TrEMBL record:
It comes from the Bacteria. It comes from Fictibacillus nanhaiensis. Gene3D superfamilies: NIF3 (NGG1p interacting factor 3)-like (3.40.1390.30). This is GTP cyclohydrolase 1 type 2 homolog. Belongs to the GTP cyclohydrolase I type 2/NIF3 family. Keywords: Metal-binding.
């Protein structure tokens, strides 16, 4: 696979989601070299550490969910300097990967072995909406917590807010801590809501609304969406090797 082949494949995989967020800084190359890509490294975040690990893995292309955002002051410049030094291209896809059918919330549903995804996460009218899924055999509060911890390999925070078993679940990975998102899950009769960040108000509202609230890390609720993307790239280019970059569990410390 060449860089140009990868670039042509992205519209095929993401369809209208690239048009939805065109010119909004939600996907792009941050450093682009036209070269043969033998090894893809992937991670949730673009950081100096993930670039270094990509270099050590022999990567020609690093794919991440997040850019090194401008509000993490100065980090993007360091990342781009290192990408240039190591001759590694970098591509990130943020909102398109959140809302494409195989994206971040769907991927977490898959990893916790949900039986049926009734609604995928989406974006419309300038608003995010969680995905919703159903367990055919309901889980207890503790069973779902333990399943999430096994999948993400990290401790998660969880608030038990009712005494029912869990059948219907809402997920919006990453920073899905707005009370409006929890309300959406509650209005759709979800027994639990899962995301990657919390606030005082999300904890308060989940308790008030009577819905179990599970919070993993932003990084590790979203890595499986990046993995799903890389798997799809390999379906088109099976000779390309994929390397998962292990990031620190700094949000759980």
């Amino acid at each position: 696979m060449k860089t140009s082949d990868f670039e042509k494949l992205m519209p095929e995989l993401f369809g209208s989601w690239l048009q939805e967020f065109e010119n909004e800084g939600e996907y792009s190359f941050t450093h682009k070299l036209e070269k043969k890509i033998n090894v893809i490294a992937y991670a949730t975040n673009l950081t100096p550490e993930t670039v270094e690990k990509a270099h050590r893995s022999g990567a020609d292309l690093l794919i991440t969910h997040h850019d090194a955002w401008d509000f993490v002051y100065g980090m993007k410049d360091v990342c781009v300097d290192r990408l240039r030094k190591y001759h590694i291209s970098h591509y990130f896809t943020h909102y398109p990967l959140d809302f494409v059918e195989f994206g971040t919330s769907t991927a977490l549903f898959e990893r916790i072995h949900i039986d049926e995804i009734t609604t995928v996460s989406t974006f419309k009218d300038n608003q995010e909406f969680p995905g919703i899924g159903v367990f055919h055999t309901p889980l207890s509060f503790i069973e779902l917590k333990e399943r999430l911890e096994r999948v993400m390999d990290e401790p998660i925070k969880a608030w038990e807010n009712h005494d029912r078993s869990i059948k219907k679940v809402g997920i919006l990975t990453g920073a899905g801590n707005q009370t409006s998102l929890i309300k959406y899950a509650k209005n759709h009769n979800c027994d639990a809501y899962i995301t990657g960040e919390q606030s005082l108000y999300s904890v308060q509202y989940a308790k008030f609304a009577g819905i179990h609230f599970y919070v993993g890390s932003h990084t590790f609720t979203e890595i499986f969406g990046v993995e799903n993307l890389v798997v799809r790239i390999q379906e088109f280019f099976p000779d390309v090797k994929a390397v998962k970059i292990q990031e620190d569990h700094m949000e759980s410390c």
